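Support reply, case 0932

Customer input (verbatim):
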Amino acid sequence: MNRRDYELIEAYMLTCMRDSAHDKEHIYRVLNVALEIAEGETAVNYDVLIAACLLHDIARQEQYDDSNIDHAEFGAQKAYDFLTKNGFATEFSQHVADCIKTHRFRGSNIPQSIEAKILFDADKIDATGTLGIARTLFYNGIVGEPLYSLDSERNVLDGSNDTEASFFQEYKFKLENVYSKIITDTGRCIAESRRRSAVDFYNSMLAEVSESYKIGKSLLKKHID
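Our regenerated output:
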């Protein structure tokens, strides 16, 4: 990809990023990891991969404003429109759009091309380890979701079967399971190298808050008639 095209796409991406958990640095991290994964693959179209990485989250704001919008599908169309409007070939633009459409963890669209698989993995890797923990906590704060939920007896729930959104619920739903979703060999190696730190963080937080509630409930009984 020539520098002019890169800077054109990058500049457009920068105008779209609003979500602090999916900010421009998330985009650059995804691009960095994608390029690392691509080194272990063959026949990668780097122009498509770079464009897809830069543009994969350009519809995050639309999804934030309207929860009925899927940022992957909306973003795919948004990217296609931008690229074709700016003189990129229809085939290239569609390939980029297809990558973006299939990058979402919660999505039902399966990555098909090697570029789509690499983008999917790189994006998921940014949800692993302590980085994934930090980003999730950041997003929980933005949307006003709690760290954890309590049952009727005020015991801390671990997130496994929670019906209400919380950090623990998201950890059990996504952060704990993201490792099994990675497609490429290089991606799996990178993700696995980060797993332990996330597990330790979650287990430590769960133990700390659970013990606090357990002791607190017992002591409170001594002071409430």
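We compared this against your earlier run and they match. Two observations from our side: Residues 217 and 224 are 11 Å apart (CA to CA). The chain has a mean pLDDT of 94. Please reopen the case if you see a mismatch on your end.
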